[in-house]
Amino acid sequence: MTFATTLIVSGETFEMAYRFGQVAERELAGIADAAGQAACIERLWNGIGELGWMGTAIPEEAGGAGGDLADLAAIASGAGRAGLALPVASSCGVVPALLAGNPVLPDVATGAARVAVILPGAAQDEDTGGLRIRLLNDGLTLDGVVVGVETPPNPTHALVAAEGAEPMLLLIPASSPGVQTELYQRIDGRLAADWHFSLVTVDSGWIVARGPEVPERTAAARDLGALLTCIECVSAMGALIEQTIQYLLNREQFGAPLATYQALRHRVADMYVEYENLRGITARALRAAQSGEPSWQAIAFAKLRLGEAGRAVAESAIQCHGGMGMTEELPAIRLCKRLMMAEFEFGNRVFQAARLLAADGRTSTAAAD
Amino acid sequence: MTFATTLIVSGETFEMAYRFGQVAERELAGIADAAGQAACIERLWNGIGELGWMGTAIPEEAGGAGGDLADLAAIASGAGRAGLALPVASSCGVVPALLAGNPVLPDVATGAARVAVILPGAAQDEDTGGLRIRLLNDGLTLDGVVVGVETPPNPTHALVAAEGAEPMLLLIPASSPGVQTELYQRIDGRLAADWHFSLVTVDSGWIVARGPEVPERTAAARDLGALLTCIECVSAMGALIEQTIQYLLNREQFGAPLATYQALRHRVADMYVEYENLRGITARALRAAQSGEPSWQAIAFAKLRLGEAGRAVAESAIQCHGGMGMTEELPAIRLCKRLMMAEFEFGNRVFQAARLLAADGRTSTAAAD
Amino acid sequence: MDAAIDYQAFRAEIRDFALAHCPPDIRAVVASYRKLSRKVWYPWQRILFEHGWGAPSWPKEFGGTGWDPRQRVIFDEVMAECDCPPQYHHGLRHLGPVIIEFGTPEQQKRFLPGILNGEDWWCQGYSEPGAGSDLASLRTTARREDDHYMVDGQKTWTSHAHESDWMYTLVRTSKEPKKQQGISLLLIPLNLPGITIRPIRTIDGWHHVNEVFLDGVRVPAANRIGEEGQGWTYGKFLLERERLGGANIAPHRKALERVRELVATELAGEGRRAERELLQHRLLLAESELLAASELGRESVEAVMQGNALGMLPSVIKLGTSVTMQTISQIALDAVGERLAPRFRRVDGAGPNAEEPGIEWVQNYMYARVRTIYGGSSEVQKNVIAKQLFGI
Amino acid sequence: MDAAIDYQAFRAEIRDFALAHCPPDIRAVVASYRKLSRKVWYPWQRILFEHGWGAPSWPKEFGGTGWDPRQRVIFDEVMAECDCPPQYHHGLRHLGPVIIEFGTPEQQKRFLPGILNGEDWWCQGYSEPGAGSDLASLRTTARREDDHYMVDGQKTWTSHAHESDWMYTLVRTSKEPKKQQGISLLLIPLNLPGITIRPIRTIDGWHHVNEVFLDGVRVPAANRIGEEGQGWTYGKFLLERERLGGANIAPHRKALERVRELVATELAGEGRRAERELLQHRLLLAESELLAASELGRESVEAVMQGNALGMLPSVIKLGTSVTMQTISQIALDAVGERLAPRFRRVDGAGPNAEEPGIEWVQNYMYARVRTIYGGSSEVQKNVIAKQLFGI
Question: What is the pTM of this model?
């Protein structure tokens, strides 16, 4: 009997997302060249648009399905299990949340508006002073470069949470004068872009929100992204462990299946404990987020654990696969790279640890139990 | 064939010290009560006095053997391999070094003068402000409490490196008015004492050294102590690994020797790598100390490694012994406790790491190779 | 039925009672991790008994509370949170349920009340030298002579034998070819002739466990629980009852909070900032592990309440939390070790140990090594998990 | 003899030459851990060759330097310290010594000069799919036809095959009952018909290794080194020559220094102090491991110079330093990952990767995983050590 990990979310939506993800994974893995991969990712994006993924949590009156966090979690879980190379947490969760009430929302729901989110603290090019909004000749001007931003294919907009004298949330068309993007594929297969804003004049129509509500909304959106990323990665890690077990059962060395060597057996047991812990702490954060009183601490702790466990389990899985672990031949190893990159999305370990220590909010987390 | 670790120091002196240590260990292990243990430790002290251990590095004209660091290393190595519960590094190395040229030296050599060393940074009682020298009514006065100081049995003197307006190295008779000691046995079987100095008037005859040379001499003496402790512990760790191997070979569980379980085999292999690394880095520090240009960095790195490796190997050895690892029945486990306590002698990991980072002296260590 | 239970109100009720009625000196002993002896346990057990809470895990008809599994875990959690002695007496948790299930009415009448009110103190005589985790190979024999058994052999790792009145004991009553058979469960009064109790000196310098030598000890046959040769079944019954033992993470979280305070106090000030931050960071990682484990504990309770199988959850929780507790104790030792480890004394009973605040963590560090050894070592747990994962 | 050698002067001589003659653009590639291709290696090999240092490990009569083992390790150390490309070409290190030992005079004349001056580039065809560390089970066959062999099969993990002229190859020339026998060593020009080279995509996105398919490849029998069926012996000869491979810790220390600078630069300022100090502390522990390993390396050289056995030293050094290098690369990733990991691109050859300083550590982190896998995995090393320790 083949071992199957306990799922963090199950049900029809999960199954649908997982099936889509599996087909997509196989298709992408078969393509060797960069242009072909990019074209495939675009087809996949259109595919999830048609399936309504981006509209999951968008109200029906704005063209969405009017779903809730449970529906988003199901999609993230299904996509995550297959290591789907699309920005699910961002495009299905964070963008709709930040653009709630905005007229662009129906286009977001269909996938026609392809929005990349630039949150405060996004990586900046060394030589620039970051992204600034300033008053210039009586108008607002945006200037700066941000790099390594996860993105849908051919982004139509950047949704920028700009810090300045007055914080602003801006939805900037990618075609605006002074805006340039450079797209590339990350090592986990996802698309990212560098955005160059050269003295871009801010159109008042771009302003989604301004003032003190902007930091609040972006913090909440980042936490939603972190939570969905954790859910994705629980699924990815579960699949990775299952595949590692299968590999060790099937592969022989010195006349015996690798699965019979105690050192490897114990290593996989350790991986499983990491998995269960990540599943537990993520389930806890999801439960807290679904309760009346969401807890950013619960999410911060889950993301912190993901950073630790994601890397540890990926490294163990590569080791268990021996030489094959160094290649991209197997889906398992592609999942490893996904787990490694997830650490850097929506706040890494350092970010999460720093805010937990600073808030000294640790005793209050007991309330989430 | 029984496995034997590579020794860090060998030769006749080592063999002599090891034999003495083994007999001592067996004797102490057979005594259940505290008073009996204390009496035994006193006998052992007299024994090493007769053998001339404390005089090893004391010049012949001062009643010693006129030996060098190699001789001290051989004694530390032999004693360490048996986990001898006497303050070898302190009494044979640090005290003679600090008292070089002092008239008490011949008594130190015979063991008649039993000197406990109180270095700057020694643990202080919570409620006191530490050890202070101050001018009071035209005379110098020493006041304060230090605790947990390693000591020979019935100490006759405290050798105190006191920080004050002018640093002083004081050799204070334990019988002086205002001086009180409380002796007890540490968990590794060694003796320690709390020293209470209540407005003790400093006799000018007590002053061994004063002024800026005091911090220099005490720093060098601490490093000597740290180096000898590392040498002791290399030997202790080697013996511990040998004994763990024997235990696993002899003990069966579920019908097979424990030594056949790959998880335990790999754990012991890891212990052995830790051992070899500690042996290597300690040999390097010893070599540097014997060269014309001793390197405190080399010692700091060795002691840092001892802190990490000592605890890791002791914990692994306890785990390998299962329930027996929780008892004091076996010599191996007594060696574990010795390794754990050694971390706190002559500067723990934090102390060593802090000075290495502060000095940024890391590039200069290349010179020691 | 359990829909009617207001667990939050239940938790509050327990907490109020604990805070109001558990004597401060007893709570101080627990809070500072000093040794829990019968002297500490008994008064609190008496108080609980008088309040009707003497046996949370027993059915009502035998003086128990009749609580459901969730209530029992809540009770244990609150005990830990309020620094009440964990109600983990061998008689109450282990033997009582066996007597209730397999004892005769006479045995129930004879033994249960003393367990319940705390007057009788019990220890468990299972382990034997050299047997390790392999209970089936035990060698202590009980030879039937008329209405008595003559018991000869040796038990080890026997916690609290030196302060107990009774030992429930697995003994070999016949030489069956299958090792699990031929084992019986005997209740042995520890004041019988032929019994010698020798303390085992443990690495933390405390007196926890003993060797018990049984040399021609005459035990009435009426002290046998259940049938002769079926002792193995009763032992297994116990193990299965204890599946939720790991679900209570409250003691771990309490320890973590204590060490967090310890680090803040011990390493206060700018001079020790780097050191303090390093330890705080390690504590944060430990905390994330405990939060994860408490969620798995919650799942376990849920599963038991629903009558579902627990699968690997108990092993996963045990494996994870045992290491986390060791980590927490290492962090504590790193904080106070330089100052206090040399003051922690070796010989138990030869005068008081040092009493400085924080010194308990030197002992806790040493003692914590046992967590990956007892109750199924980490190696055994990993074997169990791997067997499930690989199917071979 | 070796008493006459002034090793310090030798070290200085090598360093002076390296700094004066290794082209800056080549050293920049090495310093930033960019890909070392034939394009980078060849010019430096040519310079060394012209200086008479083309083959540090060969005897003088074949154009080597005739250096003793200590000099060879010093040479390698200085190369690393000065960011010169490590002189680790398969032809020079692996094949050359075999041809010198077992080749005919004609073969020596034909093949050695091209290796020495760098004009011929070689790769090693040993591994096969599914064979793992188990070389003896290889399946590529070479059937004798007159003065040729017909070679059919598949090699994998073949480094640099895509930029090599030749592959020295272990093939099965007869079906012996003992697996180690019936293996021969053939030198195969890679431009022969029937050879297909397919890159293996590795996790770090670089092109290091290949699959080489051999489909009816006609190789002159004169290209066989030594006797038919003795290939296994020549393979072992190589392995034994490489025992000192781990004694050179200079590249590791260089990496550590680079990461120390990286941490200082990347995490400068008060806002990142806590993070910086955490990583500096981890680096210090890694440094202590490397200092220990370099002492063990020193012992190894000493032992080889004295003709003593190395025992477990090579395994111990390999086990330890492979993990330390992984640790160093993890620390680097922790320092720059948030900023640079998303910019490190997947597809090699589809335009330049990002060029930001520090981004090489994203690649190094991924690549470093191989250190505990290749050259005898950590599991295999531990098996070897345990066998020695336990004697069973």
Answer: 0.95
